[in-house]
Amino acid sequence: MSRLKYALIGHGRRGAAHLSIVATLKDTFDIVAVCDAHPESAEAGATQFGVKAYTDVRKMIDEISPDVCDVVVPAPLHHIVSCYLSRCGISHNVETGLAPTLGLMDMMIADAAENRVKLQTSENFPFVPVEQFVCKLIKEGVIGKVHKCYRLFSTTGYHGLAAIRCRMDAAPKTVSSIGHTMPVSPYVDRAKRDHNREGLEFYAVDFDNGGLGIAMVGNKNGCLGRNKLVGFETCGERGTIITNGNQGASGGETVNVCTDEDIALRAGRAETYEFQRDFGDDGTLHRIFVELPPSLGGTIEWVNPYQRTTIAESGISLATMLDGIARAVREDTQPLWTGEMGRADQEMVIAAQRSIDLNRQPIQLPLEPDPAEEDAFDRDFEIQFGVHPRENIEKALQVNFKAR
Asked: Is the whole-model pTM more than 0.90?
């Protein structure tokens, strides 16, 4: 099959990162258009690749008929663009979080299924090279059966919860949460987001295999002199894996694990084995590996499938996601992270908020949409933009967010 015609919808900070990765996947994609509500943003992306810039999704679809669209617009617009693309028969990748409410996500998933298109949630955290390697260590039984995962992070709980789900290899069944907010001096962070309050949430997730996941998240981003408090600890029956909690960070990861002799003669004191990396002459990551005793598996490695490209380690997860939607379209298979999986990640975040609202009571999963939550989103959207977010998708496509 020839290269897939790719169109980006939303050329902001994150959209530009998507476009740069797609440009390296030359055997997979042919970039044909860049669309953004702001003409300057659309032109900036389109000019790089000599393609046409659009400010209207409908016009772009009519003129270009892309095979795959990449949706990187503000989250409250995800369902609008996604549902329109599904109704046009176009498969698409949607940035995280999939949508703000359960009802909106169900709408996206149903439209994709009804129109037989592929909907992928661009949840790239589980596909960070270190995360892939950690899951390989777990699956090969290096630290024994995993019962607990702790993650301390500064932002976006669904990323960490997605990674915890992968490490636990189980389904979440209840979520309990503590929440706290405080006012702060107004500021704009590096991602050009406004802040006048600081939040902190502490999630406890019980899994159906008896395991427990702990995640602490907030919106401080290391601003105002705060400690970033990033870290990830995965606890198995005979050892622990320690990594950084931030998907953009690498280095310093270890697996701390006991041989039978360590357990019998050293009172369970584990040896520390550092993750190692091999790089090519051009600095491209070739593999991540760890040298363990033969009784624990010897040398275990993850090999970079993109080592023949110029993609940096920090871009491999996004490349994996974009390749995933392409493979799903070409081979008529499921995407790497389906809409349902994206819903499951957000479902835990929504359950945590419900738990906070109910004075830390455990919330059972799975969840059904709450009419009050759905109505609140619709009401706020209509007040802000003068159009209902569900009743007329084509009209809602005209909503324009403030550019920075």
From this structure: yes
